[in-house]
């Protein structure tokens, strides 16, 4: 895990926290197994071997043993209750299995979390809102919450009068992280109205992302704007 996450970021990212939790659970499971094997198991009572009586010849004047009458119940000895050591061992083994199950769950969760990118700790992220020139008007890009993972991205094209720009129907979104050679990622846009679209885009890593907004007005004409969006961890 230390080959993916610097030591100083172990507790500053979800990847590091889940990894530390998994490590602690595995250490707890190993400790329980050692405790069960070398401390509780030797305390279990061992059954003594039955004494083998020496064979003796029956005396001639001794009457042969008679079987009990069928209507008389044969007395049976009650089964002894399990010793305290056995009950304690059973509880400890159940706890060991539970800890291992939680460790496996933490490992499966860890596989779904992307490790933080080295050098991206300077990007604090947060909600992003900025405008750029877009033909005769402007285009506004809003990214929320501005953190690694899923983000809500709004694109709005505004004319010089501040109203929605006419003729702009759809947008294309392109995401790139040059520092790690990622992209371009092209999430699907959902049209709300002419000049306004939304997308739920996933930024898999923290860092300074380049976001390209494009709208094709015709076969030979297109508008575009480039934004630099900081995404936090």
TrEMBL record:
The chain crosses the membrane at residues 14-35, 95-114. Residues 48-70 have a biased composition (Acidic residues). Residues 71-83 have a biased composition (Pro residues). Residues 45-83 are annotated as: Disordered. The keyword Transmembrane helix applies. Its main location: other. It is found in: Cell envelope. GO terms for biological process: copper ion transport. InterPro entries: CopC/D. Keywords: Membrane, Transmembrane, Transmembrane helix. GO terms for cellular component: cell envelope; plasma membrane. The keyword Transport does not apply. This is Unannotated protein. The lineage of its organism: unclassified sequences, metagenomes, ecological metagenomes.
């Amino acid at each position: 895990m230390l080959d993916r996450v610097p030591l100083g970021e172990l507790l500053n990212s979800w990847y590091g926290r889940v990894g530390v939790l998994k490590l602690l659970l595995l250490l707890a499971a190993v400790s329980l197994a050692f405790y069960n094997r070398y401390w509780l198991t030797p305390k279990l009572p061992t059954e003594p071997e039955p004494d083998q009586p020496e064979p003796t010849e029956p005396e001639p004047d001794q009457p042969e043993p008679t079987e009990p009458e069928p209507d008389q119940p044969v007395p049976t000895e009650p089964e002894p209750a399990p010793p305290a050591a056995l009950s304690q061992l059973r509880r400890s083994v159940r706890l060991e299995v539970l800890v291992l199950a939680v460790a496996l769950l933490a490992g499966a969760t860890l596989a779904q979390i992307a490790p933080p990118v080295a050098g991206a700790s300077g990007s604090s992220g947060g909600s992003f809102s900025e405008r750029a020139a877009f033909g005769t008007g402007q285009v506004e890009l809003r990214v929320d919450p501005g953190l690694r993972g899923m983000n809500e991205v709004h694109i709005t094209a505004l004319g010089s009068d501040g109203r929605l720009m006419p003729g702009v129907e759809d947008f294309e979104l392109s995401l790139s992280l040059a520092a790690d050679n990622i992209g371009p990622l092209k999430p699907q846009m959902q049209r709300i109205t002419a000049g306004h679209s939304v997308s739920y885009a996933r930024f898999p890593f923290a860092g300074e992302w380049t976001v390209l907004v494009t709208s094709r007005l015709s076969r030979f004409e297109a508008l575009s704007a480039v934004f630099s969006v900081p995404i936090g961890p």
